[in-house]
Structure formats: C-alpha cells, structure tokens
Amino acid sequence: MSLPFHTFGPETNLLHGGQEPDPATGSRAVPIYQTTSYVFNDTEHAQNLFSLAEPGNIYSRIGNPTVDVFEQRIALLEDGAAAVATASGMSAITMAILNVAKAGDDIVTSTNLYGGTYNLFVHTLPRYGINVHFVEGEDPESFAKAITPHTKAIFAETIGNPSLNILDIEAIADVAHDHHIPFIIDNTFATPYVCRPIDWGADIVVHSATKWIGGHGTAIGGVVVDSGRFNWNHEKFPGFTEPDESYNGIRFGVDAGPAAFAIKLRVQLLRDIGACLSPQNAFLLLQGLETLHLRVKTHANQALEIAEYLNQHEGVEWVNYPGLKDHPTHTLAEKYFHYGHGSIVVFGIKGGRDAGRKLIDQSTIWSHVANVGDAKSLIIHPASTTHQQLSHENLSKSGVTEELVRLSVGLESVEDLIQDLDNAIYHANGFRKSYGKSKHAAEPVLSSSLDRSNGELRKRVIGIVCASSLLVEQHKLERLGFDVVSFSNMEELQRETNVNWDIVYVEEADEEILNIAKEVKPTLLWSRKPINHEDAAIISGVSLYEAVVNIRSGKDLSTSLVSV
C-alpha cells in the first residue's frame, strides 16, 4: 500500500496498515482467524517453514494472521522493522529482556517505573540470575556510571511513573550506544501516535497494548517492536552470534537481517514460553487502534485542563503533569511529543492519607481501579490501596507519598469530570473551587423532558401561571416532551399539592408569587421579565421555550439567562 514519493500519515496507517481486503471473501474488516494450526501445502512447504527458510503460519502460538496485522500496524506506527505481539505488556517486557540477557548478565534502569515492571526487576529476574541496577532519576550520566561489562541493555519508560518525568530519549540512547548495548523503552504512557522513540535512537520499544492502544479496557495484550537499527553481530550477544541448533544452526545476528531481534524473540521465546496474543484480543486491539489518533488528543486536552484546574485549587498541595509549563521536563515533552502530553495527572490532596481515602469514596464518575489508559476516567489513591503495606518512609522512597492521587483522564465531558472531582475534594477536606465552564443552573432541568434522578423515570412538569401571553409557548413546550399545566393564578397551582413542579413559569414574579413559590418549592421559578431578588432559584430574562431550544442547540445559556 504505497504511492510514489508519498508516505502515509499515522492516521492512515492506524486504519489500513498491515492489511489488504481478505482475498478469499473480500472482507474489509480484519477477519478473526480463530484457529490453532494451518495446513501445509506439502512436505517441502512444511520443512521450509520449520527451518525458517520461508515465512508462513505454523501454529498460532508463534504467529496468526489476525495477530500479524496488529503487529505490522504497530511496527509501521513506531517506524520499526518488525513487531511481536504478546499476551500482556508484562510478557512483552519480560521477553524483551530475556532476548538479550541470561544468568550472570545485568540491565540498567531508572527507579521511575510502573509497579509491575519494578516487581519484575526487583524480585523475579534476580531469581533467574539477571541483576538489575537502579538509577535515581533520568540523568544520562547516572545511567553511564551504572553500566558494567555484563550489562546487556538500558531499560526506561518514556513517561516515568509516578514522577511523570519525560525521558531524554536521545541522550539515553547515546549512552547505550557508546557502550554497544541496546536501549529498550516502554512507550505505553505516550503511545506511538504521540511519541516515536525509535526516531530518537531507541532500539526496542515495548507497549502494554491493554492501555491506550486498546483504549477500552476490554483486552489484555502487549507488543515488542524491533527498530531494525541495532547491530547484533557482536561478541557481547552470543545468543545472536552463536548457532541455534533448533533451527539448523541459524545465527540470528548474522543470518536474520534487520529484524533479527524480533525473529529471535518469536521463534525462540514465544515458541518456548508461549505468552502469545490471542486472535480475539488482537481484533479488539485493532479496533482500538482505529481511533487512537482521535482519543489521545481528547485525553491530552482534557488532562491539561484538569491539571490547570487542580493547580489553582486550594484543596490541592501540588500537581504533576508534563503539559504544565512549570513541570521540570516540560521542555523535553515539547521536543519528543506530538498532540499533547499524555493523559495521566498526579496530584497531592491536602489532608494526606485520610483525605485521599475520602476523595476516592466520594467520586462518582471517576472509576476506582488500578488500571490506566481506558476511555473511562480512572482514579486511585495508592497509599490506601496498591501501596498500603508500605511504611511512610518506604512510600517516600517509592515516590508514592500519602497524599498522592493518580488520575487517568478519559473521554467523558471534562466539565462533568471537574465538577465530580471538585465535589469529592470538598467532601475530603472542605475546599472547593468554582469552575468557569460550569453548567448553568437551568441546564439539568431543561436538557431533557425526562427526570431520571433517584432511579426513577418521569416526565418533567411545568406550571404556567397568570399571563395568557405565555400560553402560546405551552404547545411548543409540550411538543418538546414536557407535561405543561396552565393556571389563572398561583393559588390554583398551590392547591395541586401532589405535583412535583420542575418549573413554575410566570410573566413577572411579584412578591405574592415569590411567597407562594417558597411554599410550592419548584426546582426553578422562571420569570420571563427580569426581576431583582435574592432567591437563587429564580431564572429570568428570556422565554422558557427559547432557553430549551438554546440548550438543545448546544448554545451557552450563561449569555442569555439571568440567575437571581
């Protein structure tokens, strides 16, 4: 799929990369090849496949046509030579390390890591003889000093966790290459649409596709991308230079070409460990990829707006987001990122651990889960959940302080997210901040003629009082779905004691009407003519029908309504 002198943009590759319409059926969507094995053309064909003399499908643990489209698409997005999909992000990281390191070797990494990766490096890899040297922060010199003759790779994350510091990819890549070791980078938090580490010298890129690539919290998966740039034909990597007897003595660093790393990982580790991606999950992840470019922009824009809001909130001690200009690595984010600065926001709530717990319990739209990268907004207070067993001192060492709250900003209305967050903060520590884009008080009542509050469903009821001039609006409001009842005076309406009035609509609210309204207690008292009164439940200054039309047309009511 190419045109002369033209390179497809990432948006096109997200939808078409790695796929042509199915030759047998013409299917435009990627088919799900739900099969374990594949028929060989003849014995010679089978022999060639098993000896790696020609490409093709043998068994879905090693390769599957649906998974292959996903792999090719990711490789295109990252500008890699090849990609290998895995059962999860953690299996992608594990196999990327095992592909270069063995017992007696070590790797160098930063302390700013995803918790699962940290556990792998601290507890699991050392059990198998692979040591991990941790570097505080992301300073290139610190990485260089930690490298030993046994170091086989540098590993880091594009966006550190929980610091959200942006890695200086180019500088760390230079350190790795000066010592002839590969630079492996986890690009999950940035996504291949926002950042392409290979462009800046990274050799291997890994993703937890579970997160933003899938984007909907429906499938677990991972992927390893081989840049095709690193020279594996070096004595430092005997696994690439010595013959593999299980494949007729092939030497991957000599015989396999630019995609040597990916081929070795697939035919050795995926074959033997078996952490392969299922065709069904590959299909779901492909569905996510098709809208990645649309989602990440909204994620990032909303994350920035929420970060800026929290930065001005008295109930918040600090805010950490790379998109804020005072973030210590904002300049690096501007260098390496396109289309925003990610969708993770970390902040400290005033009141510490207790306030953090209360904040979580009071959140309604934000889902309390330990995941990130969903279309839905997610929230967690690590000190009372994932890190609850740690002492105050150990919390500080991990970077997870008692007041820290992590947000994964989703795709809901940003106004709703901020209102929900502000309400939760208020119940947690008593501080509240007004939001400039808050909905007008009339919007919840007028946006729908149905009331769904308290788990019930009913039509909203409007009482029109006194003025015959308002009756011309009655039929219009009824056509919009409201129950409308007209009265000649407020006393008549007052006698209807069994009705919950959503709106009482009058031409002008005089003192008598105001007094009766206090007894009737409508949700809104609507006066067509402007009035001056201290009662905050009164809306005045425009026709009720016009207000409903404005709301349903998506217009801002604050410019046409007066709340008094």
UniProtKB/TrEMBL annotation:
GO biological process entries: cysteine biosynthetic process from serine; L-homocysteine biosynthetic process; transsulfuration
Database matches in InterPro entries: Cys/Met-Metab_PyrdxlP-dep_enz, Cys_met_metab_PP, OAc-hSer/O-AcSer_sulfhydrylase, PyrdxlP-dep_Trfase, PyrdxlP-dep_Trfase_major, PyrdxlP-dep_Trfase_small
Keyword terms, alphabetized: Pyridoxal phosphate, Transferase
Matches recorded under PROSITE patterns: CYS_MET_METAB_PP
Domain of life assignment: Bacteria
CDD domains: CGS_like
Gene3D superfamilies for this protein: Aspartate Aminotransferase, domain 1, Type I PLP-dependent aspartate aminotransferase-like (Major domain)
Cofactor (UniProt): pyridoxal 5'-phosphate
Any one GO cellular component localisation term in the record: cytoplasm
Keyword Signal part of the UniProt annotation: no
Keyword field contains Transferase: yes
GO molecular function: cysteine synthase activity; O-acetylhomoserine aminocarboxypropyltransferase activity; pyridoxal phosphate binding
Similarity comment: Belongs to the trans-sulfuration enzymes family.
UniProt cross-references to PANTHER family, sorted A to Z: HOMOCYSTEINE/CYSTEINE SYNTHASE (PTHR43797), HOMOCYSTEINE_CYSTEINE SYNTHASE (PTHR43797:SF2)
Name of this protein: O-acetylhomoserine aminocarboxypropyltransferase
Species, as recorded: Halobacillus faecis
Record lineage: Bacteria, Bacillati, Bacillota, Bacilli, Bacillales
